[in-house]
TrEMBL record:
<feature type="coiled-coil region">
    <location>
        <begin position="58"/>
        <end position="144"/>
    </location>
</feature>
<dbReference type="GO" id="GO:0008017">
    <property type="term" value="F:microtubule binding"/>
</dbReference>
<dbReference type="GO" id="GO:0005813">
    <property type="term" value="C:centrosome"/>
</dbReference>
<keyword id="KW-0175">Coiled coil</keyword>
<dbReference type="GO" id="GO:0031122">
    <property type="term" value="P:cytoplasmic microtubule organization"/>
</dbReference>
<dbReference type="GO" id="GO:0051959">
    <property type="term" value="F:dynein light intermediate chain binding"/>
</dbReference>
<dbReference type="GO" id="GO:0030705">
    <property type="term" value="P:cytoskeleton-dependent intracellular transport"/>
</dbReference>
<dbReference type="GO" id="GO:0005737">
    <property type="term" value="C:cytoplasm"/>
</dbReference>
<protein>
    <submittedName>
        <fullName>DAPLE protein</fullName>
    </submittedName>
</protein>
């Protein structure tokens, strides 16, 4: 039973490491999205709106990641406590079941966060496309205005 428990602890540690890597990747992706939005906002009149959107996006992602990191740290502390304490086989089995459930919940949260990041990426691409279209429309309107002004000036003369 103890060998089985030790193997299970090792498996849970590996899962936690995978979750930590996924969290770091999510943080990196979120930071990159924020950077992309900042770069995009510099080139348009919608800079203030986008900056607040970037800030909210980064804050939301950061808070979720921090929560997941806290949960992960809690799981690691529990695993360490299980190692240090000599629990009976029954008690440790119950703890492992509980840890498995928490790990599954963390995995689901990370998956949801990754899905949300994908949705936000798509939203950012949509915003970029819209921004480009608005810039083109603005340029076309300026050309039309200049043409009309020239026509008006000729008519006045």
């Amino acid at each position: 039973d103890r060998d089985t428990d030790k193997k299970r602890i090792e498996e849970l540690l590996e899962e936690n490491m995978v979750l930590e890597i996924a969290q770091k990747q999510s943080m990196n992706e979120s930071a990159h999205l924020g950077w992309e939005l900042e770069q995009l906002s510099k080139s348009t009149d919608l800079a203030d709106t986008r900056k607040s959107f970037v800030f909210e996006l980064n804050e939301c992602a950061s808070s979720r990641i921090l929560k997941l990191e806290k949960d992960n740290q809690s799981l690691q502390n529990t695993i360490q406590e299980l190692r240090d304490a000599s629990l009976t086989s029954r008690e440790s089995s119950l703890k492992f079941v509980e840890l498995e459930k928490e790990n599954q919940q963390l995995s689901k949260k990370i998956e949801k966060l990754q899905n949300q990041i994908e949705k936000e990426k798509q939203s950012n691409q949509d915003l970029e496309t819209l921004s480009e279209e608005l810039i083109k429309d603005k340029e076309q309107l300026q050309v039309v205005m200049e043409t009309q002004k020239a026509d008006t000036d000729r008519q006045v003369q």
